């Protein structure tokens, strides 16, 4: 089983030193959330993740969730851990106090999401979708629905799901067939099949609240005829008590390469009672509230798994002896593999990406809070535009880098990484779902290029790049060489941006064939931007914590020398166009 | 279960049109191996791989090889298939007729290795190590040993293993502890533990012939005290019949992420009778005969798994509808995903790498045969130098690209790639061992840079690059634009080579930290070289098979536009040195 120590130090560094965002600091309700409080929360979070949840990873992998006699049974230990988890209030962390939540900002809850992803992604998914459902209901449902369902979801007694995918459609929701027929009393009855439903059924909660995209009987075809419905596993009586079972059955639980503790279900809806959330035929808008926040969290999953993979690689490299280092003294024995240059390079690659991602994520959490809570509408909108731009980037970069990092961890471990003992291969398998679900990374890249760069709110990407340049060009002598590197790469990214904007208008296939590369190029630059902000503080505050800041500066140095330049070949290869790709005959 | 059709067309194209290597064609014994014969062999090979062996992949994954009551049991169906496999003579394909072999050159047997890797890597491993053992015994043992052991190995009735790794040493063999004590009658008794022994024990053959690296009792420490021993599972009587069980027991069979049908064993040697092969204390030299050939075959494994992953991605892309293509006519339905630019790009990425690798491998097979069989010693040595240079490159590139390609296959399949049904996730898991075993890819990269570029035979890399340049600069107008691209990248590779040669002498850590990148840069160029040779033929012979050659030219075009340029960022990042890596304090 891998070891894990929550990186509270690095998290607190971000919270203490990089919370210097004027707009974020203007949000009234977060003014009293100070370092001491956050430190207490993270310390408690470390304990439950390290002690209670981490062991569930192996348990879930060895005893996958199963469907037996119509009942979905989670792995041994899940139920006890979940009970403790909700007793301690972890589901309520970021929820509104009005419904029993603790009202923590995403600057805090994102740290918790990361820890939980490190400890056990499978276990995390049971409550993660509940928060998604919470957000969707919170933003789009009537007060009646909110009062009836939210307190139980916040408490963790009921969980949530997001039901979109059907056999014929994952990416392409216009094709979906689940029907909702309006009854005389204003409720609907839903029929159809949903697949790949995470936490679709299980034995951890009293009730499961499904948020289902379906087509009302009189709605048009395509995506413009889709509405959103709340469909509980058990009907909830007017007094809030659990009523009869609704018309939903579990067809099967998928056998998967990883996240085996998570129940990925086929759900059959058969005249299931549902309540419309939001406006008719506007279901996708409401669902996207849930999906966008969820996509960022999937990015954080990649970060969390990367972190535990790195920690175990580092400790293994310090205890495994093999071969002689180049400059070793002629003694008898072998050296620890951490003395070897290529192992060190690999470890620094992981570390520099992880810490850069965490800093970028912290910046994004602040932007998200500004987008939701700032009093000034214009400020709010600008933050919202940045969040919308960076959502596909964070989802894709962090999960792709998760594949790279878990793979490097396996190489560091050699044969011991491939066998089951050390748990490294499980991290590799578990992480592998993250570039697929919540929209494959190619879907994210297309979303970025075709919808997020320039939209009805203007030229978002241009504003973003201008903002980075302003952030960097502070004239600080100590960060100068880093800033120069970043500026050189922003230059390339700007060329790439001009090229791709033109192609989005005039040659869509060129843009499609380049969108994955464009996302990567932007991602590497965004992480570099986050590193510049870390560096500013590290130089300024250097004397107060020399070891810590020296580590940051050297890690950033690696990122700028070895990681950031990787964006160049993305630019070069992607801008060769697509005629030769589109004309190819695949016989 | 994935489908598979052996790419006989492409293989026959290589055999027919790219066998134009003067030195290879001077090998007397291969002159009669003509196209018709090879076509017959490949057709038969297709049948057994597609019909008998392919189904074993799933069987082995679902019913891993187990150790029960001291007996290692292979998965259902393995024994029947193996019986058919040896009856049809597939183990003997490349072996010397003197011992019952068919005497086929590697230009043919490498195709068979590829097919078998596509069909079931786990099953393949049972006979693969037998061929390794065959080569080792053939080149280093006495006639007595050869006559006693080789016919049965060639026939497939006995199998072989390679026993190097011990708990304290995989990469670093100098540390190994297994002892061999000489007895009065000239034989040895071995004691010690070997781990990660592929096909170390199983129920497919009557006997298992272990080739074991051990230290004779009076030998020095370090790698210079290692000798090689033949240690049979059952003692073989003088008349060739099976005698009593030798002192070898199976401690355990590893649980692994993939290749679950393959028995990866812990073997305990307890006064086991063994016979020294080759000279005392020169065991590693003899073992390297086996390892070097084996490393190329591991590269071919990556190629084979890439091929089946590609085939299934292509067919899935042609049958799965999702989303609208950019220039689709406004009809109701979705388009097949093969209409989408980014899916096409992904498929071409796979295809262009796979076909380039296959062509490179064919070139390398010819070189290998020249290095073993050419009458002119100088010609032989030159070919041997090239084989030795390209061995780590092929092992590493093909297996790394196998990770990329199986991962892309999973993305093309979306959620259906991550669940067990389609078998894509198994390819992803099975391939993942290939960058680890037979020396991790980092070990290969260090081997390349520190031992293969320049050695006692001279400046091998320089000769290799000169040879590529000669091959390319034929003045052919039709390949001109491709050759220009390649020359530009050879230019970069030459700079990288000069840099790294200097670092090998004066700053070894810089070279170590750069060696993985250097290998990649060389690998991308080597595959491009193979493509140039394919292009020469494709243009020249164009009118005789337009569709086939047009496909080749367009696939090559993709490689030169989108794949080859990836080598540049390896050069740029790797040549930043290593001070900042070596000085880093991993606290």
Summarize the structure.
Chain A has a domain at 452-587.
Number of helices of chain A: 19
Low-confidence stretches of chain A: none
The value of Rg of chain A in angstroms is 24 Å
Biggest interface reads: A-B, 95 and 95 residues
Main structural class of chain A: alpha+beta
**Mean pLDDT rating of chain A:** 96
What is the secondary structure topology, with strand pairs?
The structure is a homodimer.
Chain A: H1 8-17, H2 22-25, H3 35-62, E1 66-68, E2 71-73, H4 78-87, H5 106-119, H6 121-140, H7 143-155, E3 158-163, E4 179-182, E5 188-198, E6 207-216, E7 226-232, E8 234-236, E9 242-245, E10 248-253, E11 264-277, H8 283-319, H9 341-373, H10 377-413, H11 415-418, H12 424-431, H13 441-452, E12 454-455, E13 458-459, H14 460-472, H15 480-506, H16 508-540, H17 546-563, H18 567-574, H19 579-582
Parallel strand pairs in A: 3-6, 4-6
Antiparallel strand pairs in A: 1-2, 4-5, 5-11, 6-7, 7-11, 8-9, 10-11, 12-13
Helix pairs in contact in A: 1-3, 1-9, 3-5, 5-6, 5-8, 6-7, 6-8, 8-9, 8-10, 8-12, 9-10, 9-16, 9-17, 10-12, 10-13, 10-16, 13-16, 14-15, 15-16, 16-17, 16-18
Structural overview:
- The structure is a homodimer of 587-residue chains.
- Chain A is an alpha+beta fold and 587 residues long.
- Chain A has a domain at 452-587.
- Helices cover 57% and strands 13% of the residues of chain A.
- The first copy, chain A, has 19 helices and 13 strands.
- Chain A has helices spanning 8-17, 22-25, 35-62, 78-87, 106-119, 121-140, 143-155, 283-319, 341-373, 377-413, 415-418, 424-431, 441-452, 460-472, 480-506, 508-540, 546-563, 567-574, 579-582, and strands spanning 66-68, 71-73, 158-163, 179-182, 188-198, 207-216, 226-232, 234-236, 242-245, 248-253, 264-277, 454-455, 458-459.
- In chain A, strands 4-5-11-7-6 form a 5-stranded mixed β-barrel.
- In chain A, helix 6 packs antiparallel against helix 8 and helix 10 (377-413) packs antiparallel against helix 12 (424-431).
- Chain A is globular.
- In chain A, 58% of the residues are buried.
- Chains A and B meet through helix 8, helix 9, helix 10, helix 11 and helix 12 of A and helix 8, helix 9, helix 10, helix 11 and helix 12 of B.
């Amino acid at each position: 089983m891998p070891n894990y120590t929550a990186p509270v130090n690095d998290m607190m560094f971000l919270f203490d030193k990089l919370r210097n965002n004027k707009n974020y600091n203007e949000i009234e309700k977060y003014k009293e959330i100070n370092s001491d409080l956050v430190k207490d929360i993270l310390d408690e979070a470390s304990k439950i993740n390290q002690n209670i949840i981490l062991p569930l990873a192996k348990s879930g992998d060895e005893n996958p969730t199963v469907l037996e006699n119509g009942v979905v049974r989670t792995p041994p230990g899940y139920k006890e851990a979940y009970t403790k988890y909700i007793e301690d209030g972890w589901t309520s962390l970021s929820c509104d106090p009005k419904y029993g939540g603790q009202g923590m900002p995403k600057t805090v809850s994102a740290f918790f999401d990361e820890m939980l992803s490190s400890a056990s992604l499978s276990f995390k998914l049971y409550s993660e979708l509940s928060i998604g459902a919470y957000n969707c209901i919170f933003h789009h449902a009537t007060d009646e629905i909110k009062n009836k369902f939210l307190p139980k979801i916040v408490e963790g007694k009921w969980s949530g799901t997001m039901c979109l995918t059907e056999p014929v459609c994952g990416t392409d929701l216009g094709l979906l067939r689940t029907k909702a027929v309006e009854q005389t009393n204003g409720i609907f009855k839903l029929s159809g099949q949903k697949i790949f439903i995470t936490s679709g059924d299980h034995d951890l909660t009293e009730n499961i609240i499904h948020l289902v995209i379906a087509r009302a009987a009189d709605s048009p075809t395509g995506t413009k005829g889709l509405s959103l419905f709340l469909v509980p596993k058990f009907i909830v009586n007017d007094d809030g008590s659990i009523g009869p079972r609704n018309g939903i059955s579990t067809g099967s639980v998928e056998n998967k390469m990883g996240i085996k503790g998570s129940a990925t279900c086929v759900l059959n809806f058969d005249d299931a009672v549902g309540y419309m959330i939001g406006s008719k035929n506007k279901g996708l808008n409401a669902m996207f509230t849930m999906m966008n926040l969820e996509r960022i969290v999937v990015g954080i999953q990649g970060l969390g798994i990367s972190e535990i993979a790195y920690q175990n690689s580092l400790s293994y490299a310090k205890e495994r002896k093999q071969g002689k280092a180049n400059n070793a003294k002629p003694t008898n024995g072998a050296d620890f593999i951490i003395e070897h240059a290529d192992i060190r390079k690999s470890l620094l690659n992981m570390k520099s990406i992880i810490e850069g991602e965490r800093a970028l994520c912290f910046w994004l959490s602040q932007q998200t809070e500004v987008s939701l809570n700032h009093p000034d509408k214009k400020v709010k909108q600008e933050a919202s535009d940045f969040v919308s731009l960076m959502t596909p980037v964070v989802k894709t970069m962090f999960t792709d880098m998760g594949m790279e990092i878990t793979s490097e961890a396996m190489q560091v471990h050699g044969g011991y990484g491939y066998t089951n003992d050390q748990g490294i291969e499980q991290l590799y398998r578990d992480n592998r779902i993250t570039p697929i679900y919540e929209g494959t990374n190619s879907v994210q890249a297309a979303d970025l290029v075709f919808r997020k760069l320039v939209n009805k709110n203007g030229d978002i990407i241009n504003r973003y790049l201008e903002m980075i340049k302003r952030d960097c060009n502070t004239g600080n002598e100590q960060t100068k060489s880093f800033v120069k590197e970043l500026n050189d790469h922003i230059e390339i990214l700007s060329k790439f941006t001009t090229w791709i904007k033109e192609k989005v208008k005039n040659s869509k296939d060129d843009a499609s064939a380049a969108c994955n590369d464009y996302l990567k190029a932007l991602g590497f630059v965004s992480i570099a931007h986050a590193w510049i902000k870390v560096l500013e503080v590290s130089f300024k505050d250097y004397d107060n914590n020399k070891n810590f800041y020296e580590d940051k500066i050297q890690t950033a140095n690696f990122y700028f020398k070895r990681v950031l330049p990787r964006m160049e070949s993305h630019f070069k290869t992607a801008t060769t166009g697509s005629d030769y790709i589109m004309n190819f005959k695949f016989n």
